[in-house]
Every structure is written in structure tokens, then in C-alpha cells.
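User: Structure please.
Assistant: Input sequence and predicted structure:
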Amino acid sequence: PLRKYKGRVVFQGNDVKDQDWQSAIFQELNICPATVEAAKAADCYGMLPGSGAQQSDAEQAYAQAEFKGTPTWVSLPRHRWPQAWIDARYKNPVCPLRLALHSHADSGGYWKRHCEEHLLSAGFERIPDWRSCFWRPEVQLFLVVYVDDFKLAGPCENLVKGWSLTRQKIRVGPPKDVGTFLGR
């Protein structure tokens, strides 16, 4: 039941060249996801009387964030070309990379920035010295973000509001009972 079949378009980073056909170098922005201890703290908080915990996955997380790095042009696999490219009989067209694409060295950092920006605008506050962990004081909700996995814990009556706040600008799937998180 935990098996998911997914397809993913990724940035193939093994053959990336700059304008002079030299190997391209990226900033490799830091993502610093939450820790196992943070996930366990959310579990504990969710076990308090009257509290609960749920989790959800961001839908196509990296592609929700704009790519803001060095202008990068990519070629698409032929089966993803628009009909106009096929009709024009292009040989190897390229297009600008507009969204952070999984496997690009900088995409994780752009997603993290995008995610945190929107959580803060929705009223969540960073928890000092605890990366990718947020608190919403008026509804007493604790949110842990591990790359594209979200775990929300707090009073049961506030969980729906917490997911609603999270969904204001981040596409996440429907919440479900806590299960495998951080590979545990």
C-alpha cells in the first residue's frame, strides 16, 4: 500500500555546458532539511490529549518554485516537444529553464526559499535554531518540512486550518495519518 508509481522529469546534470562549452558550475544552494528529532517532536506533540498529527506531500515541489539562477537553457526529450516544434522540423531546440527542476544543483535551495517565504506569509514563524520547523502561535500548530514532506501537529480542531494556511500558496496533497516520514 505504500508503493507509489511516479514519473519525474529531472535536470540531467552530467552533461551541462556553459556558453563556451566548458563544464558549468552552479552555486549549489543549501537546503538543510528538518531532522529526525524534529519529526519525532511533532509526533510527540500530536500524541498530547486533544492533539493529532498529519502529513502531506508537496505536489511537484521543486517545479512550484521559480528558477532564479544563472540563465539556463535546456533541451526537452522529443516526446515532450510542442507540435509547433515538430512541424518546424527543429533538430535540437532549447528553451529557458523557468522553474526549479529536480536534480539541478540549485533547485533545492529555490524550493526551500519559496516554501519558507509562503509559510511565513501565511503566519507561520520560524523556530530559532531548528531548521525547517515552524510554529503558528494562535492555533498552536507545529509544522515540520522535510524537502517536500510536511508534518503538522497540534490541537485536532486546528489541523484543518493549518493545512488551509499551508495551501494558500503551496500545492500539497490531501493530509493523511502519519506514516513513513524521513524514510522512517
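The first strand starts at residue 51 and ends at 57.
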